[in-house]
Design a protein that fits this description.
Blueprint (H helix, E strand, L loop, with lengths): L2 H8 L1 E10 L2 E6 L6 H6 L10 H4 L18 E7 L3 E6 L24 E5 L4 H10 L13 H6 L3 E15 L10 H10 L2 H6 L7 E3 L24 H10 L6 E7 L6 H13 L3 E3 L2 E2 L1 H7 L7 E7 L28 H12 L3 H18 L2 E14 L2 E2 L13 E2 L2
Length: about 400
């Protein structure tokens, strides 16, 4: 299910879904809805069909390697955690006929006998393996390798430019992040250009004050005066006025994520410069995720990708409390939740854009998260790989090898 799907279902009248014929159905809502199309168009998650034994297992329980069975044009043949995942062509699958494949739509054909995802910890080793032909695709390369990859005549680089770096606060933390003024101070202190430059070359990122992504129909500049202020003195003054008394600020930053790790190396000294006592323990991404339910952390470094329509209903990053709702609730964002519902009911695009501006301004004020730069993820691949598409995330269906 998705946040948009939950909202649509929650606003339907009883028995509001009606089948008209084999290709037509109707939806009846309690009142007019303005987000039906965008809510139904989200390309995630898949409509999975589960074996009864797996469907009956609580989602919190590990299904283990034997539970990863796959479906569609490829099926899982081997999975060794921390080492590799192998899928092979599923010959019993019958692709759609009469329609060419187009990313997630149309015919889905398995031209390749098997596909292997290998766990290679070293970024340099991945680059060397791609250059020597040991691997065919580098799934999500570090941005520092971009110039080297585009200069290689045997390599192409696919990219998707709707990612957004962020650092996110735990607004219900037992530590300093529960203090709104401290969050606002850190937002004011952040030099986004310096931070983005630590992550990759400037031709792969751009400044963007819109929480709904620049270059999209909902891009907004409302509240841009609070974006990239880079005002250390203002931040110091706000920290001094916040009641902060030297409590430890726990910043969680993964040490194994090329497109995130450098952020912590910039943010920790910045937070210390404005007056915070900062602890940033060494941890990998898996450890960071496992600690999210804990109440004692204050901020994490992260990024999010725009999968679909960048509205606060279809986008899970902007749904619920309009940020990572599973980190806890904050009474201050109740206003954005009300605006989100108003947005969902509004059929007029111009009025929807006005509501987007109000939500964006409310989020700059509450500062549950600091939006940084918009950037492009890169997927270098050998030129022997054909029809490899990354409009949003890489899909290996319909790709083939010319060798």
């Amino acid at each position: 299910t998705t946040a948009a799907g939950d909202m649509l279902k929650g606003q339907m009248v009883e028995n509001g879904w009606t089948e008209i014929d084999d290709k037509t159905f109707s939806l009846t809502f309690q009142q007019p809805m303005g987000v039906v199309i965008s809510g139904m168009a989200a390309p995630w998650p898949l409509s999975n069909i589960w074996p009864e034994s797996i469907a009956a297992t609580p989602s919190q329980e590990d299904h283990g390697e034997d539970g990863a069975i796959g479906s569609g044009p490829y099926k899982v043949s081997e999975w060794i955690r921390g080492d590799k995942l192998v899928v092979e062509r599923f010959d019993a699958y019958v692709p759609r006929t009469g329609e060419e494949g187009s990313y997630l739509a149309g015919a889905k054909i398995a031209y390749i006998d098997n596909i292997q995802w290998l766990e290679i910890p070293s970024e340099e080793s991945k680059m060397a393996a791609l250059k020597t032909g040991e691997i065919d695709v580098w799934d999500g390369a570090g941005l520092d390798f971009y110039s080297d990859m585009v200069a290689d005549p045997n390599i192409d680089v696919a990219m998707y430019d709707k990612h957004f770096w962020t650092y996110d606060f735990n607004v219900t933390s037992t530590g300093p992040a529960s203090n709104k003024m401290i969050r606002q101070a850190l937002q004011a202190a952040t030099d986004i250009e310096e931070l983005a430059a630590s992550l990759g070359p400037s031709d792969l990122w751009s400044l963007c004050p819109s929480r709904y992504r620049c270059g999209t129909p909902l891009a907004s500049t409302v509240g841009e005066e609070y974006y990239n202020e880079n005002d250390i003195e203002k931040a110091k003054k706000m920290i001094a006025e916040s009641g902060y008394n030297g409590e430890t600020f726990l910043l969680m930053n993964p040490n194994d994520y090329a497109t995130i790790t450098p952020m912590g190396q910039v943010l920790k000294p910045l937070f210390e410069e404005v007056g915070l006592t900062v602890e940033m323990p060494s941890m990998d991404w898996a450890t960071l995720l496992s600690r999210l339910p804990d109440p004692d952390w204050d901020a994490i470094t992260d990024w999010w990708v725009q999968w679909a329509s960048p509205d606060p209903v279809a986008d899970p990053m902007l749904s619920g409390t309009i940020y990572f709702g599973n980190f806890g609730d904050d009474p201050e964002v109740e206003r954005t939740k009300a605006l989100r519902l108003e947005y969902a009911f509004e059929p007029d695009p111009a009025k929807q854009l006005e509501l987007i501006g109000k939500m964006q301004l409310a989020l700059y004020d509450s500062a549950p998260q600091v939006m940084l730069a918009q950037w492009a993820s890169i997927y270098p691949y050998s030129k022997v790989v054909k029809d490899f598409e990354v409009p949003v995330f890489p899909v290996y269906i319909n790709a083939w090898l010319d060798r």
